[in-house]
Structure formats: structure tokens, C-alpha cells
Predict the structure.
Amino acid sequence: MFGRKKRRLDPLIRQLMEWVGETNVLYRREDLVAYECDGFTLKKGEARAVVFPADTREVAAVVRLLHRENVPFIARGAGTGLSGGATPLGGEVIISLVKMKKLLRVDLDNRIAVVQPGFVNLKLTQSIADRGYYYAPDPSSQYACTIGGNVAENAGGAHCLKYGVTTNHILGAEVVLPDGEVIRIGDEGIPDMPGYDLLGLLTGSEGTLGIVTEITVRILKAPQGKQTLLAYFDDVEEASRAVSDIISAGILPAALEMMDRTAIEAVESANFPVGHPLDIEALLLVEVDGIEAGLKSQVEDITELCRRRNVREVKTARDEKEAAAWWANRKTGFGAMGAISPDYLVQDGVIPRSTLPEVLGKIREISRDTGLRIANIFHAGDGNLHPLILFDERKPGEKERALEAGSRCLKVCAEVGGTITGEHGVGIEKREEMRFVFTKEEIAAQIRLRDVFNPGNLLNPGKGFPQPGRCAEVKQEIKERRMAEG
Amino acid sequence: MTAMALNDLLPAERISRSESSNPLGNSGDWIAQPRTENEIADLLRHADEKGWKVTVTGGGSKRGYGGLRERYDMMLSLADLRGVVEHRRGDMTVTVRAGTPIRELADHLAEHGQRLPCDPRWPGTATIGGVVAANETGPRRLAFGAPRDFVLGLRVICPDGRILRTGGKVVKNVAGYDMNKLFVGSMGTLGVMSEITVKLRPLPPDQCLMYLTFPEGSEADIEPFLRLLRSSTLEPFALEVLNPVLAEKTAGVNRYTLAVAFEDRSEAVDDQVKWVRDHLPEGIGMEMRRGEEALRCWEAWAELGPRGPEVPDTDSPAAAAKIGLRSTETVSFIREATEKASDRGLEVFAHGGAGHGIARIWLRGTREAVLPYLAELRSVVEERRGFLVADHLPFEWRKRLDVWGNRTIPFGLMKRIKDSCDPNRTLNDQRFVGGI
Ligand SMILES: Cc1cc2nc3c(=O)[nH]c(=O)nc-3n(C[C@H](O)[C@H](O)[C@H](O)COP(=O)(O)OP(=O)(O)OC[C@H]3O[C@@H](n4cnc5c(N)ncnc54)[C@H](O)[C@@H]3O)c2cc1C
């Protein structure tokens, strides 16, 4: 029976098996279900197969095969992406990098580490923490997401305010181009190698320019000291102003996070409650780090700035354990929405920090208009909002309303001079919203760049850019607005 | 190319004919000084259609940096495209015109307690556009990062006259490709940047610069001390190794010297200074500049080395190079560069970042002496998988030594990028790696 089945096998699957081994190819319908979407679950598609290469050579061989056969393909890490970047639209072969998960080399003195793309973000810090080092970009999904996926999305995290996002920590990569050619950029982690900044272009390209098969990252020495503060506010606007005050005072916290009342209700009902009062309107979670001797006065200054904004209470974590509990409460914030709503949609707009009060007000209006609750948990110091739109997919029309609310939130961000995504990427989800921030010409210029790397558009097709012919009116409106702005 | 054609595009007083040639090359038969983006667009479109070659310049400090053409049809000078467009103080971002000199911008920002996280050479001459185009950094790169890290958005004029925006004005942005990275460090070969939006940092509450001088015979102590420092939790802003002649100029001592800088609140600066004192091997000299004094040192530092606009002395002109290495190889490289120079009867000034791996050297001499020296150093560096880019050489010399080096890089892809952005090779033709 096995033999019969094999004979009927799609010849492409058979060829893939020849390269990566029979057990490293999934192709049965039931096996493909797990790959029909990523963390953005509102759109699903069916892949043709999933392959698990063991090394760069296998990735390149698979890519060459698919390129020759003109079959579209997608790289996939842990599938935690929140914009549908790793979701098949239909018929793609998924190249999963999860079996390429080795830490290849650590060079503490030069502060670099070399990893395979499937290596999980948090594992890097765990592997070097005993020697006092860490890897700075810390997306909340860091216990699961891969560094390859981080590079593709240019992932951020709570500590990016001071330390920068993924692109600031990537020093080199080995990349399989969409025709199977293997290139190396930034060998040995040496910066400024002559030539165009290919590494910078690849980072954040959402897996559409090449498949990253090895990554050299910068690691940092863990800071000497760290202080974590919680500030509870009775007024969202006052909390927002405190954020601007802290930054304007010349303090650069390692992290400056905010949660609003709905978000606090969720995290306190979920798995990691820490006893935040439920009747406050907003809280700030602030961390300062660096040379121990300089921290005390920073904590005092922040406390004073919050007082001036009528904070109800400010407290400093007694010890690392308490700080860790506050962070666990924050970092599991998205998932916590499950405790108060059957479904939720995360958005990811960025605004100039100073417009925070205005934008939060507009998001409240959108919530009222659409009749959906919206919780806000976000990187306030960066102005990176994460409105979490709560809905119930079983109720007819709610999913559509949630999508509409999300898009409207992004529109507000674009209108105040911000952008539609700060770390989650465009993927499938925000393709049309690209028009909120870029003109047709600017989008065309980006597509031309894609064509340089990915001329046949076989690698992750249909992602990142508006689909031709859709939303003609929106297109026109945005174009006119841009023209008027000059 | 005729004045007539240009006269339709710019008022006569902003076009001039230039007959004189400059030993650094990269001259233009005509010099155009546009004041607006639209003027640049018109000039470029016209040039692109007519097949003219255009070079772009800001303050001219990098005139000796790359380029295999002595003359272009037109030199597009952005010196008149200057000033702050929008400083969003509370957001710690600024949008500035590309021709603004670094110092002008720094002075403006300092009034508001802020700064550009960048300490490039010749801030009075170098413009933000040039610094970004060359991805130029100084010793404090260790804490500041590079232009590629702080540029948030650009307005760019393409060779065909299209005006594009890349990135945005907010500090985090992953909408579309990071198109800024096309232009940062691409030496003006893909488009002309007219406006640049950057992320700012607060001015430090306090700062200090320590010169640690290692007496002759104790050079071997430098590396272990550095290793100790690098593995500590200190947060140096600079960790530069200086060779003796450079140390003489900056610290007044003719010895291998380490320049260590800290910027933070006073208590934290004190604490780090104390650490250094406590851990310094015996016999090592220490001098400290604090606050304003440290600032002055950095200002003087930025004026060292040869710069473009000065017409070089033709018998023994200046040459300079930027070297990239692993940080742990910096000390040995600086020593090797110094010794190899003296073997050849040359005097080289050299410093290198023992925390970021970028080193710089400069010297004067005849072509016969300097080029073989640079070639020898390059082979040493490339063997260690680093690079040496000769970022200041007279034009004639550049024809004899490939400025960009011999490292294999994914050149095919780079060439395709150039072809896609500038198919007629209008902009800064042959200014960049591999003749791009
Ligand atoms: C609960 C939760 C919290 C999150 N918090 C954050 C956060 O704080 N900050 C943040 O930035 N993101 C966050 N995310 C989003 C997500 O975790 C990141 O985008 C992450 O970088 C994705 O990694 P991944 O391995 O899961 O990639 P995947 O989802 O598998 O893939 C993402 C994209 O990368 C491409 N890709 C994957 N691997 C490669 C490779 N080797 N080469 C080329 N392309 C590749 C894929 O094709 C796809 O387009 C969160 C997600 C969840 C579910």
C-alpha cells in the first residue's frame, strides 16, 4: 500500500524527498493544516508541501529545484509572525528552518555570536547569560520565535528604545537567493564592508528577498545595574504626557511600556497577575539600566516627573524577582486577551511620541464606532502602539469589523506622521494599508528592488505590497493627499 | 553640455563653469548649486536624458574618496540646500536638508540639550548628506552606532527626477523594505538625498576622556587590559588605540595610548573612572579630561587627518584609509601599521576602535612609497578577513590602487541594484566599489 501511494506521489514531492529525505517532507493534507497560517489567523491558505532542510546546502538545492520548476516557496521559522508573512496563499512549498537550530559559535571578546536561522531568540541569551552576556532584541514571543524570523521581520521588543531593533544587531548573514545562489554578507561580523548595505536591505524584507541560512549577531554585556518602576495613573493622557516628559528630560530608559485599563483587566485575569489595581486608567512600566551608580538619580527623576503628572502611585521593584514578575505580566499581554475575549487582532502602528494623547483618543472613538473593545499594550517610549481589537469570530460580521477597526487605527497613525507597522510587518494583513504611507511610485520603487533579488517573484509572492487593481479609490485619495503635501 | 541648457534650469548666478582641475579628481565642468528639491530633480532629469555624468558634493571633504573619473559633466553641489526643516524636540527626531554642515546641526541641537549620535571628521565642512552617503563614523561609534543606525527617513531624488520618500519620521518602522539602506553608505551612486530624518540622543549630563599611555616596552600590556575592560560591565563610549605620533598630537605623549571615554551621569562617570584607575597595570600613565575639556579634545580630534577641499601638496600628498577588523585585532593592526610604515621610512598616524573594529590611518609621502605600503597593509588585513578602503587619495593614485580592495563581495547583486536605480549611470559614475 505504501508503494502504491508513493507511485501516485506528486513528482515534485518525490524530488524534494531526494534532497532532504523522505521524513523531512510533509505533503498530506492533514499534515499541512498546521502551516495554513502564522500568528495572524484571519487569513489561511494551503501549502503544497513543507520541507525541513538540515543545512544551507539542502536549502540551496531545494530552492534551485523550485526555481527550475517555477514553484513558489516561503521560508518559515516558528510561525509566530503577526501579519501573515509565513502564511501560504495557496500552492507554495514551505521551507521550514526549524531543524537548522544550532548555535554555531560565540566569540565573547568580539561580542558576536553565529547562529542558524531556526535558533530560538531566547536561547541565545540563555546560552551566554552565565558569562554575563545577552542578545538585546527581545520580542515578547522570544521564547518561541527564531532569529531567522526576527531578521526577516526586523523584530523589535520592549528593550529596543535604548538598544535598537534587530537591524542594529545583525552583523552578517549567509543567504540563499531565490535562484539558489548562496551569498555571504558581512563576514566575521566586521561592519562597513565595502558595497551596498545588502544586510540592511534583507533585514525586515519579510522573507521576500532571500532565505537567511546563517546569522552573525552582536551580543552585549548585561548591564551592571537595572531598576524597574511601575507607575499607576488615573488618566491616560497624564500617563502619555509623562512618557514624553521622561524622554524630553534626556533620560533614555531601556524600556518604557504602557498598558491601558482594558489591557490591565486582561493581564490581571490571565496567567501572570501581579496585583495591578483594576480601577486605574493606565500604567507605565519603566526600566532604566546601566552603570549602577547612575541609576538612583534616574529613578528619582522619573518618579518626580510622574508625580508632576499626578500619578497615583509609583513603585520600584524590590528585587529581580518582582521585576521579572512585572515583565512576565507585560510580555504575555497579547495572549492574556484570551482571558477576556474569544478572539483578538493585534495592530502595530507607530506615531511620534508627542501625539500619544491625541491618537489614544482617536482609538477610543474607533472602539465606540465599531462597538468593539480595544485594549492598548505598547512600547510607549518608541511610540509603537499595539491596539488589541477584541472580537468574537462566531458572531457574524465581527471579524470584518475588527479588521476595519485595525485598518482605521493604522490610518490614524499615518495621519499624525507615523507608520502602519513598527515591528510586525506588512505581510498579508497590511498590504492595502501600505498606501496610507507610500505613494504608488514609492511602492513601485520597492517592487523594483524586490525584482533585483527575486526577479521571478517566486519567493513569498503576494506579500508586503498592495495587490494590483484593488482599492482604486483609496489609492487616488492617498496620492492626492501626498501631492498636496508636496 | 551648454550653459544655455542649464540656464533654463537654474538662475545664472548659481551655475558656474569650472576649468581648473583638482588633483583629487571628481571635478565638474559645470558647477550647479540648486536650492530646492525641484531644481535638483530638473537638473538630474535633464542630465539623465542627455547622457551627462553628474557628481554630487556637500562640503567636499570626501573629494579624495573613490572615483575613477577626473571630471564629470556637472558637479551638483548641495552646499545651498541647508537648514533644519523640522525639529520635533519631544520626539527626539530632526529633519534636516542634506547640505547642512554637521556643526551647524550640532549647534542647533545643543541649544535643546540634544545631539546627533555621530562624531565624524571635519564637522565644520562635512555635511549630513555626505556623512550619511559615506556612512561615516568617529571614535564614539562604539556607543553611537553608525548613520545606518540613526537614519529614519530620507527624501531622495532619483536620476530620472522622481522624488521618493524612504523610511519615515518615527523611530520604529518596518513598512515595506528598509529603503534607507539603499542610500546610506552608497556614496551617492543611487540617488541624491535632499532631506534626512534622524534619531537624536540627549546630550550627556557629564563626560570624560582618559588617555592611558603605555611606556615603551609595556605595549604588551595593552591587549590584556583591553580584554579586562571589554569583559567588564563598563560602558565606554570610545575605546581607541592610538599610535605614538598620533598620541603625541592628541595627548602630548609619544607612546601607544588608549583613549577611553565615558558619558553618563556624574556618579556613573566617576565610578567608571575609578574602575579604570583600580585596574590599570603598573607604570601606565593616565591623564583625564572632564566635561568641557573632554569636548574640546573630541573637537580637535575631528580635525585630524587630511581632508578633501585642501589642495594637496603634489610631491608628497596625503593619503588615508579606513580599515575594518575584528575588535580584538585592532591593537596588533595599529602596531603593525606603525612598524611597517617606519620600515619604509614613512610616518603614519593611526588609531583604531578596540570595541568596534574600525581603524583609520593617514600619512604623507610619494606615490612610490605610499601605494606599496597601503597594498601591504591591505593584504595583512584581508588575510584576517577584514578590509582596507583608501578613503583619501589623489586621483592619479586611485587608478593604480583599487580604493575598495579585493575582498569578494556579492558584487553581481550590487551591480543589479545600480542598474535598477540608475540605468544610465548618471550619478557618481565609477565612484564606488567595482567601478559602480
Ligand atoms: C505573542 C506574540 C508576541 C509578539 N511580540 C512581538 C514583539 O514584541 N516584537 C516583535 O517584533 N514581534 C513580535 N511578535 C511577532 C513575531 O514573533 C516576530 O515577527 C518574529 O520575528 C517572527 O519569527 P518567526 O520565527 O516566528 O517567523 P515566522 O512567523 O515563521 O516568519 C515570519 C516571516 O519571516 C520569514 N522568514 C522566517 N525565517 C526566515 C529565514 N530564515 N529567512 C528568510 N525569511 C524568513 C517568513 O517567510 C515570514 O515572512 C509577537 C508574536 C506573538 C505571537
Q: What stands out?
A: The pocket of flavin-adenine dinucleotide is lined by residues A 38-39, 74-82, 85-86, 97, 117, 139-141, 145-146, 148-150, 152-153, 155-157, 206-207, 211-212, 334-335, 423-424, 460 (CB under 6 Å).
